[in-house]
Amino acid sequence: MNYFLVKSEPSVYSWDMFLKDGHTVWEGVRNYAARLHLRAMKKGDKVLFYHSNDGLCVTGIAKVSKEAYQDPTTTDDWSAVDLVPFKTLKRPVTLAEMKAEKRLQKIPLITIGRLSVMPLKPEEFDLIVEMGKK
Fold first, then answer.
1. What is the mean pLDDT of residues 60-64?
2. Helix, strand or coil for residue 95?
3. 1: which DSSP letter?
4. pTM (two decimals)
5. Under 8 Å CB-to-CB from 22, ≥6 apart: which residues?
6. Residues 6+ apart with CB under 8 A from 85
7. H or E segment at 39?
8. Distance (Å, whole) CA 10 – CA 14
9. Looking at the DSSP assignment, which residues form a beta bridge with residue 43?
10. What is the pLDDT, as a whole number, of residue 134?
11. DSSP-assigned states of every residue in 96-129
């Protein structure tokens, strides 16, 4: 299993909207590195859902329900995946908390702030989920 983090502005598409919809097409990504990460996602992989710009926190866990396919918003070579909500964290894990945790200093969320889709190591994913339980 692989682990990822995706970012969304809550004013555009929030965790609560995602829960209400029950699934979403993760499309519109226009960054080559992020495209590679979308293409690496496999069905069942777990994905942290992060509120960017407003909120700055991980709010829940999604799962990949459909692997990469042509992004329906363009005819250019971009990819999309389908996600379904899996679990809401007991409490959001803020960017400040993650920055303060020494074991998370090398995650792309901190080192490459503008990347919208990024991989995580299993231990990084597990640590963030654990932080959301406290």
1. 98
2. helix
3. -
4. 0.96
5. 84, 85
6. 15, 18, 19, 22, 23, 49, 60, 61, 62
7. helix 32-40
8. 4
9. none
10. 83
11. HHHHH-GGGTTSHHHHSTT-SEEEE-HHHHHHHH
